[in-house]
């Protein structure tokens, strides 16, 4: 179905009704279901409910023990109807007197048979092996005999139906089918298959049914204490317990049944409303607690994250401080090494030659801070003594190079590759000369 097809006012009304009946929130899904059933609201609703409500909630975990059901509360409503027949006229009274002995014998024999049967299967729970199969066989036999027009049968066990009704806060209508009873056939044909009854039950109840001739049905009949057929029981959550609030026994018609079920629902709707409000309050409290827990966890996570960042910042800060301390210590060690080197190297500098020495050269040295030094050296000496002289001066930089004019670097510093620099004469310094000290760390 194309989404852009416009709906008529009648289709829109059916769409809203279908959504209200089924509780499906997705409008497009509702539209698709109605369209696939040719916009027959009744058929689409029944099929949808058959697929959903007629099947037990398999995704909901069942309790380990069956939910307790109060079978006979003090205020239980009991609707008991007995079919009576009054003879009229001479022919009627004659037929009554002739047939009464046979009816008495038949009724007595049937009661004795049922009484004996109750001893044979005194504990029917031991014989219940597949309750779902018992329910499925009953539904199959019912449809074969009376057709598919009937209320939506719950396709699970009795205890599953009770549990689902409790969880969903709905009325549960239980029907026990007496195959051998004289009023059963008429009740199924004229009441259960009546369209008004079908619509009423489908909209208001979970409907569970089973034959008392099956182990599952017989067990339920013993639990609900049925007396005659047709037998109907209404079960609802009251005071936190599933309770049989009403029993309808004996023949009836569709109008009377609907009227009585309405009375039962009105009498017990308050308990369902109270249960819904209590569940909503409990759910709201759980939601609030969950939100508080989530907020606490989020706050705890934020605090942990803040603490982690603070710890990382402290670690980084401590690392930086350690590196700075190491740098300071390294610088102090370097300066101490330089101070020690200056003391050691100062002792290695030869004495200044006299001016009268023809090999003496006079050098003027300008330090980076403007200080001027003057010293005489022997031109045959290594220029390393020039480096020692400048290096050992208190105002000299620790790392430097010396340049001459015209500009060229004076190779006076001893290195691993050249531990013995050339002499002044070898470098070309024969007379007095001006030298400049450049700070390599500036």
What can you tell me about this protein's structure?
By secondary structure, the protein is of the alpha/beta class. The protein has 3 domains: 1-52, Helicase, Ruva Protein, domain 3, CATH 1.10.8.10; 65-285, Glutaredoxin; 360-439, Phosphatidylinositol 3-kinase Catalytic Subunit, Chain A, domain 1 (Ubiquitin-like (UB roll)), CATH 3.10.20. The protein is built from 12 helices and 11 strands. The strands form 2 sheets. Strands 1, 2, 3, 4, 5 and 6 form a 6-stranded mixed β-sheet that branches. A 5-stranded mixed β-sheet has the order 8-7-11-9-10, with helices on one face. A hairpin with a 5-residue loop joins β7 (360-366) and β8 (372-378). The longest helix is centred in the last third of the chain and has 93 residues, at 254-346. Mean pLDDT is 84; it is low at 58-62 and 121-126.
What is this structure, in a nutshell?
With 442 residues, the chain is of the alpha/beta class.
What CATH architecture of the largest domain would you give? 3-Layer(aba) Sandwich
Let me know the CATH homologous superfamily of the largest domain: Glutaredoxin
Q: What value does the average pLDDT take? A: 84
* Class per helix and strand makeup: alpha/beta
The first-to-last residue Cα distance is 83 Å
- Helical content class: 40-55%
Shape type? rod-shaped
Profile the largest sheet. 6 strands, mixed
CATH class of the largest domain: Alpha Beta
Total number of beta strands:
11
The Cα radius of gyration reads 55 Å
């Amino acid at each position: 179905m194309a989404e852009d097809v416009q709906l008529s006012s009648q289709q829109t009304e059916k769409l809203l009704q279908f959504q209200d009946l089924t509780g499906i929130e997705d409008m497009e899904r509702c539209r698709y279901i109605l369209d696939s059933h040719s916009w027959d609201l009744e058929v689409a609703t029944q099929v949808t409910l058959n697929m959903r409500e007629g099947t037990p909630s398999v995704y909901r975990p069942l309790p380990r023990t069956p939910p307790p059901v109060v079978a006979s509360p003090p205020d239980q409503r009991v609707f008991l109807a007995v079919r009576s027949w009054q003879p009229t006229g001479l022919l009627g009274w004659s037929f009554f007197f002739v047939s009464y002995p046979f009816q008495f014998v038949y009724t007595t024999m049937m009661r004795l048979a049922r009484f004996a049967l109750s001893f044979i299967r005194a504990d029917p729970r031991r014989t219940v092996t597949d309750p779902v199969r018992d329910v499925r066989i009953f539904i199959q036999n019912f449809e074969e005999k009376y057709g598919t027009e009937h209320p939506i049968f719950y396709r699970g066990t009795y205890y599953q139906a009770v549990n689902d009704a409790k969880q969903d806060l709905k009325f549960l209508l239980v029907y026990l089918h007496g195959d051998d009873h004289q009023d059963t056939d008429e009740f199924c044909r004229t009441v259960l298959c009546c369209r008004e009854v079908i619509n009423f039950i489908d909209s208001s109840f979970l409907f569970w049914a089973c034959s008392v001739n099956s182990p599952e049905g017989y067990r339920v009949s013993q639990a609900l204490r049925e007396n005659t057929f047709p037998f109907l029981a209404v079960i609802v959550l009251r005071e936190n317990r599933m309770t049989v609030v009403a029993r309808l026994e004996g023949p009836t018609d569709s109008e009377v049944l609907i009227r009585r079920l309405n009375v039962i629902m009105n009498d017990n709707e308050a308990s369902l409303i109270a249960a819904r409000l209590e569940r909503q309050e409990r759910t709201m409290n759980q939601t609030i607690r969950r939100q508080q827990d989530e907020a606490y966890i989020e706050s705890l996570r934020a605090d942990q994250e803040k603490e982690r960042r603070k710890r990382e910042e402290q670690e980084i800060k401590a690392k930086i401080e350690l590196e700075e301390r190491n740098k300071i210590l390294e610088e102090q060690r370097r300066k101490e090494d330089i101070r020690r080197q200056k003391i050691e190297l100062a002792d290695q500098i030869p004495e200044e030659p006299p001016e009268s020495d023809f090999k003496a050269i006079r050098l003027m040295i300008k330090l980076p801070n403007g200080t001027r030094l003057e010293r005489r050296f022997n031109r045959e000496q290594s220029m390393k003594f020039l480096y020692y002289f400048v290096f050992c001066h208190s105002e000299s930089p620790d790392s430097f190079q010396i340049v001459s004019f015209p500009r060229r670097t004076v190779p006076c510093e001893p290195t691993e590759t050249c531990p013995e620099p050339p002499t002044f004469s070898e470098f070309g310094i024969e007379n007095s000369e001006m030298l400049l000290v450049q700070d390599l760390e500036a």
